[in-house]
Amino acid sequence: MNTAPPHALPAETAVTHVEIEPSVLYFGTPVVLLSTENQDGSFNLAPISSAWALGQTVVLGLGREGQSAYNLGSRPDLVINLPAPAQWPAVERLAPLTGRNPVPASKHEGCRFEADKFAAAGLTAEPSHRVRPPRVAGCPIQLEARAERVLPDVSGEFVIVETVVRTVHADSRIVVPGTDHIDPAVWSPLIYNFRHYFGLGPELGHSYRTQTPRGPRESALDGTASR
Ligand SMILES: Cc1cc2nc3c(=O)[nH]c(=O)nc-3n(C[C@H](O)[C@H](O)[C@H](O)COP(=O)(O)O)c2cc1C
What we know:
Layout: E1 27-30, E2 32-37, E3 43-48, E4 51-54, E5 57-63, H1 67-74, E6 77-82, H2 88-94, E7 97-98, E8 112-113, H3 117-121, E9 125-126, E10 135-136, E11 141-152, E12 158-170, E13 191-193, E14 196-198
Parallel strand pairs: 7-8
Antiparallel strand pairs: 1-13, 2-3, 2-6, 4-5, 5-12, 6-11, 9-10, 11-12, 13-14
This protein binds flavin mononucleotide.
Flavin mononucleotide is lined by residues 31, 44, 46-50, 61-63, 66-68, 91, 95, 97-100, 111, 192.
């Protein structure tokens, strides 16, 4: 079995591309766990990989009939929790669950209703500071946010949610001491790569715009050597 990471592909002089029709286009984006408020005041938790940041805005793509989309349409508070790579089993325990009851026909086969997703995943809730849904205690980055716009996508199957982040909580071990910088040599998102979970590989370089103070630090979160 070839276990070499993708960036280790040899530099071919004549690369051949083939046309394919993959069933999904999940080309490797971070997993977030969304906590949202249900109609009865309880809280839902759902793994999402369609999430990206633009300034203080985080844009989410959600299945139209899922409980998370339903909640954000009426109760805009949420927390965008970013798990570490080692937390992937908890994320995967949430994968077949929905907070929607009855389960919509559009959900994949095997999907079942779960009222207490925190317990089902083995995750602990901790109170937020400015929004009603709780944070996920073990997640190194937690973004308290508010959904400001919920719009249908072109297919009609999803909604695009624009959320504005109000408060950022970071595990102190991933913060460069005395600064507001996340240390990218210590923090790794959990990456959903064509339905397989990965962490980051070694650093390849950095943007000319980086402002992160540099210094050798060990990875505090997953026990691996310095990245
Ligand atoms: C790693 C991972 C990433 C996912 N990404 C998304 C996503 O970006 N958008 C989405 O709607 N569903 C995504 N899902 C599926 C939802 O988690 C699933 O539909 C779940 O039932 C939603 O829960 P809810 O109905 O309680 O909101 C993902 C699932 C996993 C395991």
